[in-house]
Amino acid sequence: MILKNMRLIGADMNFASDNAGPAAPEIMDAVVRANHGYQSSYGADGVMQSVRNRIRERFEAPDAEIHLVATGTAANALCLACLCPPWGTVYCHRNSHVEEDECGAPEFYTGGAKLTLLEGAHARIDPAGLDAALRDAAPVGVHNVQKGALTLTNATENGAVYDTGQLRQLTELAAAHEIPVHVDGARFANAVAYLGCSPAELSWKAGVKALSLGGTKNGLLGVEAVVLFDPRHSWEFELRRKRGGHLFSKHRFLSAQMDAYLEGDLWLKLAGHANATARYLGEQISSCENTAILHPVEANMVFAEWPRRLHQAAYERGAGYYLWPHAQQLEGDPDKLLSARLVCNWSTTESEVDRFIEILRRN
Amino acid sequence: MILKNMRLIGADMNFASDNAGPAAPEIMDAVVRANHGYQSSYGADGVMQSVRNRIRERFEAPDAEIHLVATGTAANALCLACLCPPWGTVYCHRNSHVEEDECGAPEFYTGGAKLTLLEGAHARIDPAGLDAALRDAAPVGVHNVQKGALTLTNATENGAVYDTGQLRQLTELAAAHEIPVHVDGARFANAVAYLGCSPAELSWKAGVKALSLGGTKNGLLGVEAVVLFDPRHSWEFELRRKRGGHLFSKHRFLSAQMDAYLEGDLWLKLAGHANATARYLGEQISSCENTAILHPVEANMVFAEWPRRLHQAAYERGAGYYLWPHAQQLEGDPDKLLSARLVCNWSTTESEVDRFIEILRRN
Amino acid sequence: MILKNMRLIGADMNFASDNAGPAAPEIMDAVVRANHGYQSSYGADGVMQSVRNRIRERFEAPDAEIHLVATGTAANALCLACLCPPWGTVYCHRNSHVEEDECGAPEFYTGGAKLTLLEGAHARIDPAGLDAALRDAAPVGVHNVQKGALTLTNATENGAVYDTGQLRQLTELAAAHEIPVHVDGARFANAVAYLGCSPAELSWKAGVKALSLGGTKNGLLGVEAVVLFDPRHSWEFELRRKRGGHLFSKHRFLSAQMDAYLEGDLWLKLAGHANATARYLGEQISSCENTAILHPVEANMVFAEWPRRLHQAAYERGAGYYLWPHAQQLEGDPDKLLSARLVCNWSTTESEVDRFIEILRRN
Amino acid sequence: MILKNMRLIGADMNFASDNAGPAAPEIMDAVVRANHGYQSSYGADGVMQSVRNRIRERFEAPDAEIHLVATGTAANALCLACLCPPWGTVYCHRNSHVEEDECGAPEFYTGGAKLTLLEGAHARIDPAGLDAALRDAAPVGVHNVQKGALTLTNATENGAVYDTGQLRQLTELAAAHEIPVHVDGARFANAVAYLGCSPAELSWKAGVKALSLGGTKNGLLGVEAVVLFDPRHSWEFELRRKRGGHLFSKHRFLSAQMDAYLEGDLWLKLAGHANATARYLGEQISSCENTAILHPVEANMVFAEWPRRLHQAAYERGAGYYLWPHAQQLEGDPDKLLSARLVCNWSTTESEVDRFIEILRRN
Hints:
Number of helices of chain A: 13
Largest interface: A-B, 57 and 57 residues
Largest sheet of chain A: 7 strands, mixed
Order of helices and strands of chain A: HHEHEHHEHEHEHEEHHHEEHEEH
Distance between the termini of chain A: 29 Å
Structural class of chain A: alpha/beta
Helix content of chain A: 25-40%
Strand order of the largest sheet of chain A: 1-7-6-5-4-2-3
Shape of chain A: globular
Oligomer: homotetramer
Strand content of chain A: 15-25%
Radius of gyration of chain A: 21 Å
């Protein structure tokens, strides 16, 4: 969505989205290297086996099945279709990507399941609300949709991270009601990097059955790995993927990206850098007058507010970011506080942050 | 699908599939160049406007709407979903990709439409059969599925090409029954290169409403352009694409491929080379003893048969291709004729063909 | 759903549901009369033409198209599928039948549309909430589901009635956002009978495009008429109905019921009686000690609360009705107020009410 | 579908369809009797338990689960949705009701499965053709739709009956490929009555997993029983039924019909009468000059041909039936043979047949 009131593409100071930035050089190199001779198509390429091995090892999950797709929406919707029947409901946060940014992909792929919207600060699902919703549905009859699956986003849409305790609180509620748990991990790397825990602790060891392991927002051209900790869904996933048009013939170009991403924990290095830069950005914003940080800066995003005239100045000087929520207007009372989302990615530099902060300070 | 009775990946002499080969260097260069700084995501990148302009100009279709997806199955299924209602039927050849190789993607994306299978030599739809099928459905009532759309593949799955006359015969029948026409153009470049006609003559000027313009089989990493000659379907297409998980955030990497593909008619050069190599391969096979060519070699594929012992020898020496149909066995009576499909791509060389033919001659 | 804590089937004092009661004798007579000789099937029976004429005349809508189905869920879901695309959202009340009691039928029939839940007292949609939701969706992009349709229930699930002014407030908001309006009229007869207005005033004259005109809850065996004030949806509706398995071969038995229902405004007489009995019941409950009426008694339902011991006494003496919401327990502190739903139908008598009230008074 | 070239509704001599005739008096009486006092809704009525018991006993299947719907299309499509995944294909006869007369209901309810069309005389599936189709699909990969289910119609659309041996031939093929078998038994009663076998022999004992046990074509107003011999599908069926809008609130009126239908084997008596009348009709037609019987007359339908002038005479004198196939024209060369379908139902009399035959003889 292109909004009139922003500049998305700056030579620098671009905090619009982690998917507006470039791919990491290690990734691009791997893609170029993969373009050599012949390779079996449709996922039978040799590199894909390496991807599987790396994920199984890194996640301490030797039985996990792994499949690649090119978009986060595909990863999420295909996972949910495997976990939730058409007559089920998917419990999710009101501000989750599956609800707000996928144009109904979960409904489409599941064959018409429902999404039950839950509240919670910082886009984390409030356990009490989940508990109430599940209890409310408890005496199931044929008249209502059935309890289907729980999906949560880690890191959240507001840049917060569920730690393993918070995660377990939710997965245990799901388990008590016998529904499986999916994690939208478009920024899973950022969550792991923030917590310093093992990927296993933040996934299957905490009761997660399926994970969309994001790459696109973290330096890939466009690949997400679906990690099925319950391998029984694997064949169904493959059929749904093919039927959804998401099986790549020249699959080697997906494998190559994911392989390089995992090699030497590049994924955590890239995410760690983005997190650190966001933290630095958040601290610097905090130190400016008339500003406030709106959500904990745990991953690679800063949600903050400051007076409108500073937004005007920042836009004028070429900074790129979204006013958040979008409905706010750039024109009007110069002292009114407007809120914004600023996203850092693997390539964002401290000096960009410094130049940006200077605008906030000098105006 | 990996079959036991073939070697797919040879250092050379690989005729398994046009999607087992590499991307063209011009394409890879463009991808690398695209990886610079920030770009608007989701198709709002600058290069996409160039793609639109190039296609509109090259197809003499200033009103056409163009959208990119990464797989042919997505392109086909999304087009058909825009053209055929859930209660309609799509007329197609029995051996078409939409029927045989998409795991029901058209049924999924249309919301449960039917495919009506037609016969015809060389995977070209027989006009008499289409006429009969449409007449048969003519006195439509509510009990039957309704006439929905016609889809045909050019070049066909058997490497034949519909010329403009043959194409018009079918589109006129469709027009008489008021159903729109889609072309699966996974090898459209090969068809245009073979005929030497203009892209417009082989599409909208001949009554085609929507075209899946293939790139992946012809030197791209994975991009297909959907060309909607009737722009009224454009917004619906965009929504279906997003909802299907086929809208790329880092869309610039798709745009870059398609832009380079169109620049200086690279697409036709690549396809022309593949066609010429296939023609040469076909001629050489014809000149061998005990061989027969099974379909006209018009695009980049040769369907031929020769004795089993020569297949065994070819496999042994590292040639890669599929026995076609797959059910044939590599072991058995050495003189039995087995049929095969051999596909050339932009990178296949005459010397590979020569080495391959030598095997057929010497054994 | 059969709950342990109620007696549904009493010889009398049964207020469980308007669909637990019998069919009206005029209706049953018509069904018996229809069982004579041969009739064209699938809606081509002669009586269906009479049904069409009666509805067009009574609704002052000569162009309306009318189709019959046997269940309210079918009527609602088929209407919504005609009005809302798969990528749209249906605005509805959080407690509406389409959300709570159809096991996802709207999602199924629309091909995966979403339901956006709105608040409002007495299960009437709050116009301010609708306005906000529509505005919130206003800057539509491809990432979100699109504004699809508005559906409201009249009389509501809480027995309240939208008058023509309240109705227009909502339909004007919908019109401003260019989305069509459907009315779930499972108890439309009760609403018209309550208001004393014309059916046209409460439907197309107030901006309604499609109406599920209920019969089953008001004395039929099982028939609902779908009234399409915009006849352009008619053929699509017919195809969706057939494809949904809702076109009856021996359709005459549906036609006969609806015809008798409309003849001499039987539908309004039956609903008027049920309304009057409910009003009487509500007044009588009000006059008892320790009771409260929870929603305006405008149609044929009373929502009220009184002490648990009186519920226990009522159940013991054979009264049938649901504690509402269902989660309440019949056992426990005898003075605690528990709420209940009591439904009157065309056959409920004042003497039943009197006997029931006596229980509340004497205990 | 109303065709110009037929008279559907005659005072007598109506052989148009078994669903154009009346309901049997025993059935109508049961409906009238059911209209007494209050009954639990949605299938919890007392009579439904009797229906379950009767079917379990009569089919010697104590574990079978039974559910009622009102149309054959609903029964078939809901069964197939439980048996075949969205990515599967349903093997069926080219002329089956699911393919030709349900406007894509199986595709809709399964979520986009495919139907694979098989040939076979008299609308019986040819075992060799099924075998070939299943073998052809055997080396399943992700590219093709998967083997889903087999459905066959008994008695067939051409009035032929599969005996238990013929049935087993097909079900054993299905079992060898591990796909379940559904029987469209819209005229199952006619098949059982013809063979004189037990219902169990013609269903679960022969490997059938799910049966649509028809009532509507055999004297009911509109009820079909779904008999799930594998009860594991039962809850899924109930959810799909509700979600499809096929769960009746005043379910007692469905139960009552099915209960009376089963009582004292009325179903077999009604079907036996229809079969006998058809046999008599067939014999009489055979004995006329210039006629031919086109399919074995085993159930309640006669397919035959005779000169056009006799069709003209029959229509003129008020006989009602379809020319079959429909495309034939009533006007033209008087001696040309035209084929017709004549259907007898429980109420067709020998004297009607005699009057009809007299027309064929006297003209």
